[in-house]
Design a protein that fits this description.
The chain is α/β, with parallel strands linked by helices. It has one domain: Phosphatidylinositol (PI) phosphodiesterase (TIM Barrel, Alpha-Beta Barrel), CATH 3.20.20.190. It contains nine helices and eight strands. Helix 8 packs across helix 9. The relative contact order is 0.16. The structure holds SN-glycerol-3-phosphate and calcium ion (CA). The site of SN-glycerol-3-phosphate (G3P) has 11 residues, from strand 2.
Length: 250
């Protein structure tokens, strides 16, 4: 087996806590996750915020588009109690709030730019500026389904790691990733087939499939030496990893 498989908490620890909230990030960190994945949208007054959908309907007690709220307006909504009443009072974090929290930790930070449906012109520059302000570029991975955006990141910054997100069974995606100067593959779990894992390893390109929640999938990707997995259940995944390590199976 190659190196140890890293565990990234998806939207923090979305299986156990309200996704993309500070309490969810804290849970992933306390579980011992190697990294955290999160989603970025932009408010009306151009503050990058952490929320998966373009609207606040599914995860908060409000309705409407993120792009139509100012940051102060967005902060009025509850982002915890739809998951469970115990989390009432959680709010949509700003990216800056998250980076300030993450700065003194050793977590890897996977920021997904959610600029496929609403384009949010200038988002790339704003995210890079914040990454620079908190000196976090060396442990940051910027991913997106919008590969034009990844190319834009690369134009603005030659060093920061970028990762192509994709859902389909592409042929030799490591070659495609190089066309947008990306360094990693973040693929939908069903397309993380053995040929992809082997070819990417040969090309020295990390693969971090999402969203790997079932024990059998966690187990098989660890056994296959996959670089990382992105999971809603980081605590469970770390326990499986530890058990496999102790039994000498991985
Ligand atoms: O970044 C991996 C994964 O989160 C991409 O899909 O829809 O969960 O943001 P989604
Ligand atoms: Ca995501």
């Amino acid at each position: 087996m190659a190196g140890k498989t890293q565990i990234f908490g998806h939207r923090g620890s979305a299986g156990t806590h309200p996704e993309n909230t500070m309490v969810s990030f804290q849970a992933a960190s306390e579980a011992g996750a190697d990294g955290i994945e999160l989603d970025i949208q932009l408010t009306k007054d151009r503050i990058p915020v952490i929320i998966h959908d373009e609207t606040i309907d599914r995860t908060t007690d409000g309705t409407g588009w993120v792009k139509d709220f100012t940051y102060d307006e967005l902060k009025e909504y509850d982002a915890g109690s739809k998951f469970h009443k115990d989390f009432k009072g959680e709010t949509v974090p700003s990216l800056e709030e998250f980076l300030d929290w993450a700065a003194d930790k050793s977590l890897l930070l996977n920021l997904e730019l959610k600029n496929g449906i609403v384009r949010y012109p200038g988002l790339e520059k704003m995210v890079l500026q914040l990454a620079g302000k908190y000196q976090l570029k060396d442990r940051m991975i910027i991913s997106s389904f919008n590969h034009y955006s990844l190319k834009e990141i690369r134009k603005l910054d030659q060093e920061i790691e970028t990762a192509v997100l994709f859902m389909e069974g592409l042929y030799e995606p490591w070659n495609y990733a190089k066309t947008v100067e990306a360094q990693a593959l973040h693929c939908f779990l069903p397309v993380a087939v053995p040929e992809l894992l082997a070819g990417a390893a040969e090309a020295r390109m990390p693969v971090r499939p999402f969203t790997v929640n079932e024990e059998k999938h966690i187990d098989s990707l660890i056994n296959a030496g996959c670089s990382a997995i992105i999971t809603d259940w980081p605590e469970k995944a770390l326990r499986i990893l530890q058990d496999l390590t102790h039994s000498g199976q991985e």
